[in-house]
Specification:
Helices cover 0% and strands 56% of the residues. By secondary structure, the protein is mostly beta strands.
Length: 115
Amino acid sequence: QVQLVESGGGLVQAGGSLRLSCAASGSIFRFNLMGWYRQAPGKQRDLVAVITSAGITNYAGSVKGRFTISRDNAKNTLYLQMNSLKAEDTAVYFCAADQNGRRYWGQGTQVTVSS
């Protein structure tokens, strides 16, 4: 059973920073891909950033240069460092992990950016 627990969300002013964490149950070596997605009210869930087991990253154009995804295999944790936050970054952020063709999701953490 895979469990992903996000933390680090909150309320921040525009231009500020937050770091999200996603703690996995057990080793994250088993996940060939991990990532962050976000969903704003009334909108679909969109990709924010992903990272492979080899450390290759990919970002949505809207966050490139502002957000950084990383993984700490020793701590079984995925991170998303978010800088220069904008009001349009407001959403629920979800952690995801892929294993053997199946995607697992966390419960989400709310990020609210006030302008």
